[in-house]
Amino acid sequence: MQLNDPLLLRTSAYVDGRWEAADDGASFAVTDPASGEKIGEVPQMGARETARAILAADAALPGWRAKTAKERAALLRRWFELIVAHSDDLATLITAECGKPLAEAKGEVAYGAAFVEWFAEEAKRAYGETIPPVAGDKRLLTIKQPIGVCAAITPWNFPLAMITRKVAPAIAAGCTVVIKPAEQTPLTALALARLAHEAGLPPGVVNVVTGDPVAIGGELTASPVVRHLSFTGSTEVGRLLMAQCAPTIKKLSLELGGNAPFIVFDDADLDAAVDGLIVAKYRNTGQTCVCANRVLVQSGVYEEFAAKLAAKVAALKVGPGSEPGVVQGPLIDAAGLAKVEAHLADAVAHGARVLTGGKRHARGGTFFEPTVLAGVTHRMLVAREETFGPVAPLFAFDTEAQAIEMANATEFGLAAYFYSRDVGRVFRVGEALEYGMVGVNTGLISNEVAPFGGVKQSGIGREGSKYGLEEYLEIKYLCLAV
Ligand code: ADP
């Protein structure tokens, strides 16, 4: 791995503006999922180092929240510009530690940087309000104040964007943050910290602690100083962290698992639906929480859609993300591969047909063939669980009501997609889907100006958009006698 700026490859964690090792000097290796090769080494920290990071964030808080929004915005803007200026190196790091194709990694840098730009702008619009009083001798108003020290625990599938989507609104609002990146992808997080340092963010405003998830997470959730936890990851871990935050009544933003339906109605533009599904299903090799997990196709167009899809999926180039032309990288690790294989074996055992793919890729390692399954039913594991891999299972349905019922038959509610050219149906189905986000005739919905988040067991709160800032603000009500 070759970087233009070697200083972006860090081997220490970032606490209180300093680069630090673990107290006992322990470290762990970061590997490239495409080759299994070691690409870096970072500190294996635990509760003690985390407690120090929380202290640093707490100490930095008064000075940081006292700055005007315009002053904070100027520093965020500088951070944004540095991220953009180092896009190539950041993309190289993302591809090296998470495996996604370089073009996708560059897309992630642009997407992730956009949150910093957006919240630098939004910081200046944390408006309060005046409220018409109920008595002549009173004046009522609200102001918005930063919630305090925040914790961010982030996943490996978007090593950069999941950090900026949390940290940018937090620090724009006047909060300070302790970040725990995923153990698979700490290098991008530390490179971001390096650029935050260079941008002139004061010590303690942003801290990155790498190491043991249970110990670090335990300290972050138990601390009464930490007032907010933002987590993106599995519903299972989200549930656990929520319980751990209960004793100190922290505010929570949770972006958890999904089980996204992708519905193709018989009036859809089938070619557009195939292209939309390729984006929604196979992006990051199927490893995003908004990836289509269940493809519901109306009976009249089922065979035609399946054939068109299988032909396109069979042509997707698989390989290391750094190789030109590759659009499907490896799965993140052996556990990810095992889950995909288990879902596939279960579906086939219950009668599903493999239209293309269906096994480990000849490249070895954690590479898997992009797969399309037909004849899938609700009895199969793929109907209930997030596969998080390049497998598109095709279910058949007959009526609109049936499609809605099937789509909503899950405890998850993050993203849903559907293709239809009937404007009445677009509104009916868009409103009936129990999801936080719905893509209509598109497979790509995420951007910094729109609210990202789920309902049901997919999470709490919204990230990005004007609502993303609110997660990090408290409303204070002032009642004045005049
Ligand atoms: P995934 O299955 O995508 O790896 P996880 O929910 O396991 O999702 O991981 C998301 C983030 O949560 C990672 O940063 C991981 O280290 C962290 N994590 C996992 N388990 C715990 C835990 N018990 N306490 C705190 N953080 C955890």
TrEMBL record:
<dbReference type="InterPro" id="IPR029510">
    <property type="entry name" value="Ald_DH_CS_GLU"/>
</dbReference>
<dbReference type="InterPro" id="IPR015590">
    <property type="entry name" value="Aldehyde_DH_dom"/>
</dbReference>
<dbReference type="InterPro" id="IPR016161">
    <property type="entry name" value="Ald_DH/histidinol_DH"/>
</dbReference>
<dbReference type="InterPro" id="IPR016160">
    <property type="entry name" value="Ald_DH_CS_CYS"/>
</dbReference>
<keyword id="KW-0560">Oxidoreductase</keyword>
<dbReference type="InterPro" id="IPR010102">
    <property type="entry name" value="Succ_semiAld_DH"/>
</dbReference>
<protein>
    <submittedName>
        <fullName>NAD-dependent succinate-semialdehyde dehydrogenase</fullName>
    </submittedName>
</protein>
<comment type="similarity">
    <text>Belongs to the aldehyde dehydrogenase family.</text>
</comment>
<dbReference type="InterPro" id="IPR016163">
    <property type="entry name" value="Ald_DH_C"/>
</dbReference>
<dbReference type="GO" id="GO:0005829">
    <property type="term" value="C:cytosol"/>
</dbReference>
<dbReference type="Pfam" id="PF00171">
    <property type="entry name" value="Aldedh"/>
</dbReference>
<dbReference type="InterPro" id="IPR016162">
    <property type="entry name" value="Ald_DH_N"/>
</dbReference>
<dbReference type="InterPro" id="IPR050740">
    <property type="entry name" value="Aldehyde_DH_Superfamily"/>
</dbReference>
<feature type="active site">
    <location>
        <position position="255"/>
    </location>
</feature>
<dbReference type="GO" id="GO:0004777">
    <property type="term" value="F:succinate-semialdehyde dehydrogenase (NAD+) activity"/>
</dbReference>
<feature type="domain" description="Aldehyde dehydrogenase">
    <location>
        <begin position="19"/>
        <end position="477"/>
    </location>
</feature>
<dbReference type="GO" id="GO:0009450">
    <property type="term" value="P:gamma-aminobutyric acid catabolic process"/>
</dbReference>
